[in-house]
Amino acid sequence: MMAVTSVRTVGELEGAYVLAPERYDPRRELEARRAMVPLRTLVNSVRRTVSVSRSDSSSCVVLDTGDAREGVVVNRKPAVTLADIGSNKKIPEPGDVIISRLRPYLRQVAFVDRKVRFLEDGVRLLCSTEFFVLRPADSQPIAFLVPFLLSRGVQAVLAAAQEGGHHPRFNETTLLGLPVPKSLVDRRKELSGDVERAVALFRQSEQALINLIDAAEE
User: Fold this and answer.
1) pLDDT at position 131
2) How far apart are CA 136 and CA 140, in angstroms?
3) 102 touches 65 (CB < 8 A)
4) What 3-state class would DSSP assign to 138?
5) Would you say the C-alpha torsion 108, 65, 101, 204 has a positive or negative sign?
6) Which residues contact 152 (CB under 8 A, 6 or more apart)?
């Protein structure tokens, strides 16, 4: 295997003069140089969290990183109270896209749809702070970002960007700096509709299996 070399001047080092070699791995950059739109211009990364409240008995569902997989939320856990959540959590909303910064090779990316289990019952939706919660920067849909984030090129960038040995993560700067092909942005409504319909089909399958499991337990 050939060595990977990257040359940076002092002025190009990231804040606090980070010297970690993986921070400047050239594989973190998408090879294609087509017309691009920076991801940060399309979304806001939502950092608002809810704190543990020992006296709050309101119901919530907490998504862990394993509850987002290959584009869909697959939570099966029952609702709990805010008093039971254990630590601060982020607050995703329908229409958001969530992506785990932890172990990107697990492809823990999902579109948050309105049919997430328990959400229709008025239960509050929360998620681990290991997720980046992406919300539209304007009124335009962002579901089209799910296949983009799961694409081979982006996955290679995130894999090269992970830092740390025991719990490898990539940072927010890497994520928001991803260049999104303008060809995708121009078709965002159409592609977002395709993603939302695909997720809706998953929900139908999910409900059918839940019904069969419930029937088996009677």
Assistant:
1) 97
2) 6
3) yes
4) coil
5) positive
6) none
Domain ranges of the chain: 36-216
Decide: 26 and 162 in contact? Cβ < 8 Å.
no
C-alpha torsion 159→153→69→90, nearest 10 = 70
Can you read off the two tokens belonging to residue 65? 């990183």
Q: What CA dihedral angle connects 92, 93, 99 and 103, to 10 degrees?
A: 40
The H-or-E segment that residue 125 falls in is: strand 124-127
Question: Cα torsion for 62, 64, 68, 72, to the nearest 10°?
Answer: -10
Architecture per CATH, domain 36-216, reads as Alpha-Beta Complex (3.90)
- The tokens for 146 are 């799910």
Reported pTM:
0.81
- Cα–Cα distance measured from residue 126 to residue 146, given in angstroms and rounded to the nearest whole number: 19
Task: Write the DSSP symbol of residue 207.
Answer: H
**CB-side exposure of 41: number of CA atoms within 13 Å?**
9
The two tokens of residue 109 are 């990316």
Task: Answer whether 82's CB lies under 8 Å from 56's CB.
Answer: yes
- Please state, in angstroms and rounded to a whole number, the distance separating the CA atoms of residues 122 and 135: 21
Query: pLDDT per residue over 137-194, tens digit each?
Result: 999 999 999 999 999 999 999 999 988 777 889 999 999 999 999 999 999 999 999 9
